[in-house]
Amino acid sequence: MKNLTLLKSNINILMQINYMNNIYYITVATKPHPVLDKIKERVNKNNEKIHLLGGHENRQIGWEGHQNFGVKLREVSDFLKNPDLKSDDIVLFTDAYDVVYCGTKKEIIKKYLKLNKPIIFGAEKQCNPDPKRASEYTFTSTEFPYLNSGMFIGRVWALRKCILEYQYNDKDDDQRFWTTRFFENPDLIGLDYKNELFLNTVDMEEKYFYLDTDDYIAIYKGSNPMFVHVNGPVKTDLLKYLNLPNYFSR
């Protein structure tokens, strides 16, 4: 029995190492940004790679623009059209300008596989952009019951099923898009209710949150999220977390 358990453990480790070569970290970054620089520093320290999408736009988008989030959807859809991607490869997406990266790809894969859904999104405490849809969610008694589209991870085949036919509109809201896909595809999409991978900070209980940006360790109520996302239009907490100059007051 011990030998069988050891064999299963070794197979699992080998599988995780194999996936290390088949995970693609992507973000949409249309302009340079100090928070993105911090993400790239972490990626480089980990000897990893990040794919920066949307640089040809050279304009502000999202909260720093005119809430024109359609670019994010288009760039993700276009990336998934790459014929070199295998259907079982994994794509990790995070926002570029309001996220702290606290993990490694190896840790991310391990946590993702345990969540046992083809696509996992971060969860948040507010139901946006359509509060009336809150009643459609199942686990509303949890602290973070609602989908947030700023961070997700999934198999290429599942993501393609959800977004490959997307028709670009600059004014589209990516969170509205993914919320609809979540309700349409409960077998494909799950939420990270316990912040194993993704923590969205709006309305969290700050006294339970710890972030060490020297060693890049995040803890919230016993969970160890790989990414911390200061979601929503107010980004002043990032100044505290990352010790940045007052970029967001410009």
Automatic annotation (TrEMBL):
InterPro entries: Collagen_mod_GT25, GT_PLOD. CDD domains: GT_LH (cd22997). Pfam families: GT_PLOD. The keyword tRNA-binding does not apply. The keyword Transferase applies. Residues 21-242 form the PLOD1-3-like GT domain. One of its GO terms (molecular function) is transferase activity. Keywords: Glycosyltransferase, Transferase. PANTHER family: GLYCOSYLTRANSFERASE 25 FAMILY MEMBER, PROCOLLAGEN-LYSINE,2-OXOGLUTARATE 5-DIOXYGENASE/GLYCOSYLTRANSFERASE 25 FAMILY MEMBER. Belongs to the glycosyltransferase 25 family. This is PLOD1-3-like GT domain-containing protein.
